[in-house]
């Protein structure tokens, strides 16, 4: 989601309780809808090189906004976790990057979904062991799940796994997860739970460091990498575990090819770019268009020592934009929110600052068939009609078009429309400012983190100037990332620019982002503060969808309500990953479909032999 620490991966019926303890394999993989792409005897995923050479040290810079770290535990709210720490943890299953939602056995060597879909049982591969040599047991899986749902973990995790009621140890190698209700996503969620040893945080005297207080206690996971060293919260080195248990698994063949992976965190983004050109690290994913065009250039690129390339991806875009905090009375009126949307001049930004590299977002699910288009379908109307009295009538028409300033459109016309909407909402220009009936000025703060300020400040400054033309005072404030994250977790902000990451099949993460319950949980993904019975009902239908058609209808309905609510000033997206890297790095010929560039590099690239 929006938080880096964040790690996104039933009632017991008589039939489930009588299931045998897996004397033989049941199912090697599951799919949320349909069947898994790869057969039971597959050798490796199509998007890896099974013959990739192993070796070398890959050095990387900040993979996101964080500029330092103060803990190894990525599952708690307090503090900032080290980059790459997810490489230490595995789950019972792992997804493939060329299917929207399938799960193949990783720690688990078979999977059984109960006929009533109220539970899923996993058998643990007898070869699976932690980095300390201990076998992975069902008790470890249960401990991990119970800890992640406890108050000591981030509330977002408890919300994410809310419909998994409990984990039951059937025998030392068998774990059963029981569900609150039948839901096709829940077996996938159960399989994605990060697993760690019960000994993580255990002191020599037998006492335990509280989970939410763990900082630099070495994680005990079962994954291919372990921490070798770290320094000053700015550098961390992972080394490949020579005793890793799962290297020969089909889901691991061709992956984890580097002997070591090092992260160096730079406090200044300009210094970070210059450090790459100076050869201080090996690969760089550039998310800022200006840097890609004007910064990632020079003699080393001309000579071929450094290379930059765009890689196509088919990820759902999610939503990137200026998020409005509805907990602030200032943003309660939809007319005000629409006026703020009209003040963003995307076409000017795209031509002057982005070199034409972006497309305007007009959906929470752009770049997929989950984006709402045209008029609502019968399936969508079945979800929307019960809430017709509470919804804007426009929801039952086509999705809203984003403001356009290309001729014959203009920023002036958009601002005139915004002024009219503000006047309808009770805001008029008086004594040098836009004021309400009580004479209070329209003023708010745009919160940013200082690590991204170099790239975002020109964008925000342009937006602020447009707002000034309406008499609105928007004050820009950049703070260090730790304080920024703390304020987000506490919902202490007016507006901020953030991203809801895209998904290929929406599910429980949407509840964390948009449900009324999550709006009141500090640290949740509902940064908007949305509380809507209509949205709650649509979310319920979304997570209960039994067919892909039902899921698409629910997602379209959700997209319509969210877009017509103007809770976010949508920004832009790109359908490519921009990657710069030094000569000698190589990647598989077949690209995955759905992937994040940083993870793709660490998991499937390699150093080509000289």
Automatic annotation (TrEMBL):
<dbReference type="Pfam" id="PF00496">
    <property type="entry name" value="SBP_bac_5"/>
</dbReference>
<keyword id="KW-0732">Signal</keyword>
<dbReference type="InterPro" id="IPR030678">
    <property type="entry name" value="Peptide/Ni-bd"/>
</dbReference>
<dbReference type="InterPro" id="IPR039424">
    <property type="entry name" value="SBP_5"/>
</dbReference>
<dbReference type="InterPro" id="IPR000914">
    <property type="entry name" value="SBP_5_dom"/>
</dbReference>
<feature type="domain" description="Solute-binding protein family 5">
    <location>
        <begin position="105"/>
        <end position="518"/>
    </location>
</feature>
<feature type="signal peptide">
    <location>
        <begin position="1"/>
        <end position="26"/>
    </location>
</feature>
<protein>
    <submittedName>
        <fullName>Extracellular solute-binding protein</fullName>
    </submittedName>
</protein>
């Amino acid at each position: 989601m929006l938080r880096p620490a964040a790690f996104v991966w039933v009632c017991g019926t008589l039939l489930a309780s009588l299931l045998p303890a897996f004397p033989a394999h049941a199912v090697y993989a599951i799919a949320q809808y349909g069947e898994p792409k790869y057969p039971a005897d597959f050798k490796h995923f199509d998007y890896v090189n099974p013959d990739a050479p192993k070796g070398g040290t890959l050095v990387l810079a900040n993979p996101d906004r964080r500029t330092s770290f103060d803990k190894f535990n990525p599952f708690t709210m307090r503090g900032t976790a080290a980059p790459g720490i997810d490489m230490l943890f595995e789950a019972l299953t792992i997804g493939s990057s060329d299917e929207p939602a399938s799960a193949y056995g990783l720690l688990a060597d078979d999977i059984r979904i109960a006929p009533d879909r109220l539970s899923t049982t996993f058998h643990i591969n007898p070869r699976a062991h932690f980095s300390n040599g201990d076998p992975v047991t069902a008790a470890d899986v249960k401990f991990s799940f119970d800890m992640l749902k406890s108050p000591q973990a981030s509330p977002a995790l408890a919300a994410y796994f809310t419909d998994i009621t409990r984990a039951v140890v059937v025998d030392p190698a068998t774990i059963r997860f029981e569900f609150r209700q039948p839901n096709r996503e829940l077996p996938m969620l159960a399989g994605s739970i990060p697993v760690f040893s019960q000994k993580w945080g255990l002191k020599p005297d037998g006492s335990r460091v509280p989970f939410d207080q763990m900082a630099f206690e070495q994680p005990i996971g079962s994954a291919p990498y372990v921490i070798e060293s770290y320094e000053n919260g700015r550098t961390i080195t992972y080394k490949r575990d020579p005793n890793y248990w799962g290297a020969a698994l089909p889901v691991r063949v061709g992956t984890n090819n580097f002997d070591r992976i090092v992260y160096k965190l730079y406090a200044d983004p300009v210094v970070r770019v210059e450090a790459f050109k100076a050869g201080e690290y090996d690969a760089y994913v550039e998310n800022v268009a200006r840097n890609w065009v004007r910064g990632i250039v020079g003699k080393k690129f001309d000579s071929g020592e450094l290379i930059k390339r765009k890689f196509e991806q088919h990820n759902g875009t999610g939503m990137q934009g200026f998020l409005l905090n509805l907990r602030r009375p200032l943003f309660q009126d939809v007319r005000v929110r629409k006026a703020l949307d009209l003040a963003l001049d995307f076409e000017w930004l795209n031509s002057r600052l982005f070199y034409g590299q972006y497309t305007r977002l007009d959906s929470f699910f752009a770049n997929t068939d989950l984006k709402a288009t045209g008029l609502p379908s019968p399936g969508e109307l079945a979800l929307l009609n019960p809430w017709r009295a509470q919804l804007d009538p426009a929801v039952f028409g086509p999705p809203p078009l984003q403001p356009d300033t290309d001729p014959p459109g203009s920023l002036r016309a958009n601002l005139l429309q915004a002024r009219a909407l503000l006047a309808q909402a009770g805001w008029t220009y008086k004594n040098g400012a836009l004021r309400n009936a009580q004479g209070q000025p329209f003023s708010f703060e745009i919160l940013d983190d200082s690590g991204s300020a170099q790239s975002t400040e020109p964008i925000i400054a342009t937006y602020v100037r447009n707002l000034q033309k309406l008499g609105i005072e928007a004050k820009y404030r950049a703070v260090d990332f730790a304080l920024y994250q703390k304020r987000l977790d506490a919902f202490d902000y007016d507006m901020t620019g953030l991203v809801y990451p895209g998904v290929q099949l929406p599910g429980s993460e949407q509840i964390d982002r948009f449900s009324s319950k999550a709006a009141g949980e500090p640290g949740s993904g509902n940064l908007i503060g949305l509380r809507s019975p209509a949205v709650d009902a649509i979310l319920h239908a979304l997570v209960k969808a039994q067919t892909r058609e039902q899921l698409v209808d629910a997602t379209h309905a959700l997209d319509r309500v969210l877009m017509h609510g103007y809770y976010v000033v949508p920004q832009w997206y790109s359908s490519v990953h921009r990657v710069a890297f030094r000569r000698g790095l190589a990647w598989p010929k077949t690209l995955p479909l759905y992937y994040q560039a940083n993870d793709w590099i660490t998991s499937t690239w390699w150093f080509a032999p000289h």
